[in-house]
Amino acid sequence: MKRMSARVLVAGAALAVLSLVTGGVAGAAETPVWVLPGVDLGGLLGPVAGLPADALAPVYGLLTLLGA
């Protein structure tokens, strides 16, 4: 029983840490994207950062229309 509760606690802690680490993904356009030290891909990835939001905009509009 101790092993099972320890595994659950470790998994919960790992999930909490990953949630905190990935919490800043929405602001990725303002920060540089480092592939290697000294190699920044922010200029290349900056224009495509908004594509997921642009692709989901019609779905969001439809859901708000149906929900209202």
Task: Characterise the protein shown here.
The protein is mainly α. It has 2 domains: 1-31, no CATH class; 32-67, no CATH class. It contains 3 helices and 2 strands. It has helices spanning 2-21, 42-45, 51-67, and strands at residues 34-36, 39-40. It has a two-stranded antiparallel ribbon with strand order 1-2. A hairpin with a 2-residue loop joins strand 1 and strand 2. It is flat, with a radius of gyration of 19 Å. The termini are far apart. The relative contact order is 0.07. The mean pLDDT is 74. Keywords: Membrane, Signal, Transmembrane, Transmembrane helix. The chain crosses the membrane at residues 44-66.
Architecture blueprint of SSEs:
Elements: H1 2-21, E1 34-36, E2 39-40, H2 42-45, H3 51-67
Antiparallel strand pairs: 1-2
